[in-house]
Model the fold of this input.
Amino acid sequence: MIGTNKIQVPKIGILKTYERLPQLNPKSVSISRIADRWFISFRFDVEQQQSLKTSIVGVDLGIKVLATLSTGEIFIGAKSYKKYEAKLSRMQWLHRHKIIGSANWKKAQIQIAKLHAKIRNIRSYSLHKLTTLLAKNHGTVVIENLNVSGMMANHKLSKAIADMSFFQFRRQLTYKCELYGSKLVVADRWFPSSKTCSNCGTKKETLSLSERVFSCEHCGFVMDRDLNAAVNLSKVTS
Ligand SMILES: [Zn+2]
Done:
């Protein structure tokens, strides 16, 4: 039984929730605990939404910004968790210098778990926002097939990639495109989206990570590196 802000759960009874609950019959319900908070999640069967979207969007995932779209839109993502990360490492340091098992140690442990959960929520929120926007508004979404294990070997990159949770991004986009009736295209792993000129198609031999602007020696075209990559992706449609 589901009310607007309460749900009846077998064995436990009626629970009040902070958020409004959807007025649908869920297939299953699960309750989980993260740090000191309880979460309830539902599974629904939904009708696929058919739409007549024809636009194609290429998405370049980045380190400085979460995503650059071929339409020129930039998705900054959640910057705010950076300040919490600094706080987290400070708390972890303090935790290591307390007496193991003491009341203070336990208290610090709970605070650390809460902060972890907060950072996770902030990240997850911005990813959901991005993937919904993409799937809902575009007929075709083209993304890169990132060689994550290869990139993880590069330590500087690995943190940024872990931050933007590429796997989550792809997983969300897969089911949301299905839901909103859009097509998801994953470009070939070796597709040189960054090195190719989106104006004339000439491919550069080398392009270092520090080069933030793409400039073509062949046709003289100049464009933001990430936008150039996104435009190239938008041309991959099969
Ligand atoms: Zn060119």
User: Anything to note?
Assistant: The pocket of zinc ion is lined by residues 197, 199-200, 202, 216, 218-219, 221 (CB under 6 Å). Helices lie at 81-96, 103-137, 148-152, 155-164, 166-180, 225-234.
